[in-house]
Design a protein that fits this description.
This protein has 4 helices and 9 strands; from the N terminus they run ββαββββαββαβα. With about 190 residues, the chain is of the alpha+beta class. The strands form 3 sheets. A 4-stranded antiparallel beta sheet has the order 1-2-3-4.
Length: about 190
């Protein structure tokens, strides 16, 4: 198999240590989606700007360093604010370590549109011992840590009771489902 790191917008191949979408090609890859020619062309038959391909677009972001592939995250999960890309995992980690009341592994960060501008939202669970306490200190700590670590302003922080954030059966955060519930106003805060 052959891996290439590609700028998903320009379709230019990137150099080592540059983050881009992971594209791959090889004999054992699927041929496409059943009865969906448009999606098959876009995902399974992608070509770089210089005509190399066809590649499978994985939708994963990563980079190559010293002939090793490093996965950064999913392209769909990337938060783009004021033209800068931010991995949600970096923001989520900043929230987890901001205050002892935040439950580890129970944070979702995502961007959302407000009046034509991308804004940052954070949804996180707090520990049971902090449910009935004043949440101002937790909120203030989250804002300060995100600002310090990512130079971002947080538009919304939603604090949930334990067990309320959406996760897969294997325990991974479901950012998109959490975002959908947030936008629909269906989170129990």
């Amino acid at each position: 198999h052959f891996i290439s790191i590609v700028d998903s917008e320009t379709r230019n191949s990137l150099c080592d240590n540059e983050v881009g979408e992971i594209w791959c090609k090889g004999l054992s890859l699927a041929q496409g989606y059943w009865r969906n020619e448009k999606a098959t062309r876009e995902t399974f038959h992608a070509y770089t700007a210089d005509g190399q391909g066809p590649y499978l677009r994985t939708g994963d972001l990563g980079f190559v360093k010293d002939d090793e592939l490093y996965i950064v995250g999913r392209l769909k999960d990337m938060i783009i604010i004021r033209g800068r890309n931010h991995a949600p995992q970096d923001i989520e980690y900043a929230v987890e370590v901001a205050h002892e009341g935040v439950r580890k592994g129970c944070v979702a960060a995502f961007g959302f549109d407000k009046s034509g501008a991308e804004k940052l939202a954070v949804v996180c669970e707090i520990k049971r011992t902090f449910v009935k306490q004043d949440h101002d200190e937790i909120t203030r700590s989250i804002i300060e840590n995100i600002t310090r670590e990512s130079e971002l302003s947080v538009s919304v922080i939603v604090l949930l009771k334990p067990g309320q954030i959406f996760k897969t059966t294997s325990g991974k955060i479901q950012r998109r489902k959490t975002k959908q519930a947030f936008l629909a106003g269906n989170l129990t805060t």
